[in-house]
Design goal:
Blueprint (H helix, E strand, L loop, with lengths): L3 H23 L1 H7 L4 H31 L32
Length: 101
């Protein structure tokens, strides 16, 4: 059985990890510069960044493996669903209103 949501979640996770690494490369120095008045806060921020870096590496590896293992198949069969026919004079549900085209 094919689960496309797993592939999409893994791809989204890789995007988020990539953005984190881009921020780490370009913007984390500004974060450390803003914490110069408190060595305790700077140390906690450095610890949090180190933990996030160490956690992001195996997470990215697992997400890449999940993408490889659950790659969507292009040979899937598309089955059209029958359209429910409307009876004459039947109106749309009250929550649709006139906004539905």
């Amino acid at each position: 059985m094919h689960y496309p949501l797993r592939y999409r979640r893994a791809r989204s996770l890789l995007y988020v990890i990539g953005l984190f690494w881009l921020w780490l490369w370009l913007g984390s120095a500004a974060l450390m510069e803003g914490l110069y008045h408190s060595p305790l806060h700077a140390a906690l921020a450095m610890y949090a960044l180190a933990v996030a870096v160490l956690v992001s590496l195996p997470t990215a590896l697992l997400a890449a493996l999940r993408m490889i293992l659950t790659h969507p198949q292009r040979t899937a069969l598309i089955v059209p669903l029958p359209v429910a026919s409307r009876r004459a004079g039947e109106t749309a549900h009250w929550w649709y209103g006139k906004k539905v085209s």
